[in-house]
Design the sequence.
């Protein structure tokens, strides 16, 4: 029943971030922004990330921002489990360490595995649409199949980051990499 609720929530969020008429279909990055917003609801961060005591859920964008102002619109109008949302744009690791989620843009597709491991050591959920992201050590990688945005999860990378991903989120993934052992 909750899974149906997740789908309905994603659907209504996609509608709410549309910029134009009712006849427009959401853009690829409107859908991805809606997913990122919803990922935050189905992840438990380690105590070291201070999300339980923080006033703000911070989403970082590393590289060229493909979302335009979509994530900023979400941040201005939504909360995550009672936390306000803040979006920062930076390539500085010390800024990104303070984030709960970091989206790594395509222009950073050659990101060093050490950068990913550094983010994960700080309890950061890494997300990207770079090809093969989850297979190369990222936690959630977007893929487009038949024109639809879907995602893969690297469970082993999430476990190394001490992030607990809801079983509901894992069921929605088209592919789960690693068993977390």
Sequence:
């Amino acid at each position: 029943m909750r899974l149906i609720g997740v789908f309905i929530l994603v659907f209504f969020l996609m509608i709410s971030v549309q910029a134009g008429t009712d006849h427009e279909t959401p853009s690829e990055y409107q859908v991805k922004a809606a997913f990122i917003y919803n990922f935050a609801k189905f992840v438990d961060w380690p105590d070291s990330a201070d999300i339980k005591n923080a006033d703000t859920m911070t989403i970082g964008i590393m590289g060229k921002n493909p979302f335009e102002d979509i994530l900023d619109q979400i941040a201005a109008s939504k909360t995550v489990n009672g936390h306000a949302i803040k979006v920062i744009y930076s390539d500085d690791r010390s800024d990104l360490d303070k984030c709960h989620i970091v989206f790594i843009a395509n222009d950073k597709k050659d990101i060093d595995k050490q950068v990913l491991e550094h983010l994960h050591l700080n309890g950061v959920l890494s997300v990207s649409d770079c090809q093969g992201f989850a297979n190369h050590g990222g936690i959630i990688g977007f893929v487009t199949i038949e024109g639809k945005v879907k995602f893969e999860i690297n469970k082993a990378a999430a476990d190394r980051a001490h992030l607990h991903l809801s079983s509901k989120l894992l069921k929605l993934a088209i592919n789960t990499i690693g068993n977390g052992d």
